[in-house]
Write a structure and sequence with these properties.
The protein has about 170 residues and is an alpha/beta fold. The protein contains four helices and seven strands. The model has no long low-confidence stretch (mean pLDDT about 95).
Length: about 170
């Protein structure tokens, strides 16, 4: 079994409307939400073996804040340019090229691609991945190269403003 956590970056700042999208940082709420969500994931006894992120500033910072909670060093985060404005093919490529020894991956990316991708994977459909949302699933495979065709099981969906979380039955 392999586990994937698909995580949308935390809330970004729009203080400077002239700033290019790639360089937008997290705002104050985003900097608070990311460690809270990481702790909620950790409370589920989740062990994350690899952190893979878009290199956009807001995604990088979200990944760094998660990594801190999981006692991982920043240098352990893998940055993949294809996760910025990613489509489903980009997500599949990143996943399928992951090291077989890794069992659980956290992937940090952006809307709308991340919402489209999570909706391809299981019977659970999400209208919109809110900022810092986490969508988790298991894939019945031994190698990441088998991920696309593997049977997948929804585990949970959580986000900062969630009152009631959605869990697998």
């Amino acid at each position: 079994m392999k586990t994937i956590l698909l995580i949308r970056h935390a809330k970004s700042s729009w203080d400077d409307p002239m700033m290019i999208d790639f360089e937008r940082p997290l705002n104050e709420r985003g900097r608070k939400d990311a460690p809270v969500m990481a702790k909620r994931v950790k409370e589920r006894n989740t062990i994350i073996d690899a952190f893979i992120s878009s290199p956009a500033k807001r995604a990088k910072k979200t990944a760094k804040l998660f990594a801190e909670v999981f006692k991982k060093e920043e240098k352990e985060i893998i940055y993949k340019t294809e996760l910025y404005h990613a489509d489903a093919e980009a997500f599949y490529s990143v996943i399928e090229n992951a090291d077989t020894e890794i069992n659980t991956i956290a992937i940090f990316s952006h809307n709308p691609g991340i919402t489209y991708f999570v909706n391809e994977l299981t019977e659970v459909k999400i209208d919109d991945m809110p900022t810092c949302a986490v969508f988790a699933l298991e894939a019945d495979c031994k190698k990441w190269k088998e991920f696309r065709k593997a049977k997948k099981k929804f585990l949970f969906f959580d986000y900062p403003k969630a009152i009631v979380e959605i869990h697998a039955k």
